[in-house]
Write a structure and sequence with these properties.
Helix content is 93%, strand content 0%. Helix 1 crosses helix 2. The radius of gyration is 76 Å and the shape is rod-shaped. The chain has three helices and no strands. It has helices at residues 6-15, 20-36, 40-197. The protein has one domain (38-141, 143-152, 155-185). The chain is an all-alpha fold and 198 residues long.
Amino acid sequence: MYSLDTHAAIRDLEAAGLASQQAEAIVAAISRADEQLATRVDVAAVGADVSAVKSDVAAIGAGVAAVGAGVATVETRVAAVETRVAAVETDVAAIKSDVAAVGTRVAAIETRVAAIETRVAAIETDVAAIKSDVAAIGTRVAAVETDVAAVKVDVARFEGRIATVESNLAAQRSEFRWMFGFLSTLILVLIGKVFEIV
């Protein structure tokens, strides 16, 4: 960057006839203006900087384009994932529906099993009652058989006594016939004697 030699400039102005204060003021003003002016070197440096910035901007643009392409790819993949998620959700809903249907069928089966168990319990109760009745009947049959055996013994005894009675009756009948014959004969004799007396 160009730098103004202030001392030399002041001397030149004083040599030209200006007062020292005026020469210093003019040089100070020029120095301030010079600080704000760009030289060709500065402009070239700025141009180089602008080119570098343009190159950086172009690189950034390319990066942004690449990022945009990547974002588009990501968006595409996200859309595909969303589609797959929707399909999975549909499958899950179908599975839930199937599970609910199976649950309903299981509940119905459990209800039927409970009813069957109730009926089986009732049948078992009836069977137990029947077994108890059969046992009671068996006991009564055994008692009847015992009574029948006793009756048979009594019948046999009665038959023996009846045979004895019949035998006694037969003997008494024979004696009665003999006595009847004797009495008949005696009566006839007495009647004959009565008629003789008369």
